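Now read this:
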Amino acid sequence: MEDFGNKYPEIIFLGCIAHSLNLLIDDIMKIPWADDIIKNGKKIVRYFKSHQVPAAILKRHQLSNYNKQISLKLPVKTRWGSSAICLKSLQVNQLAIELTITELSRNRKFKIDDDIKNTVLDDEFWQNIDDLLEILNQFVIGISIFESDTPSLSRVLDWYYQLESSGKYNILLI
């Protein structure tokens, strides 16, 4: 394979920035702390998607608290930014999910999985979602900028400096 950098030194090769940010999110999600959060989040989403009674109760709590139903979303394997979408769907539904699990726990006729119950009622789990979304949202913003149909290469540096100066990436050092 030719060394284009030596043959054409005046040309700067930049790969797809949006794809690179998706890969960065993939790497972040491999950190054990983040991996645990998304695994637990996916368990909760799958639980509600596969159990009719809890899903119906969740819908009732959503309608009474938010005046609308807000779907829970699973991440897509090839779009790592969708992990943020999954976590955001849990975050905005937190109250309805907690109320549903509490209601189901008090109903002796319905057995709820202890793993789901313990995760949903764990304040640290919800705080970890908030913390992880703080990081991921910055990269999702970058992805949306760079996947645009309009040229935006000039915005890369501004976005990067804003991200760097915010200090929000420091949590990755955990």
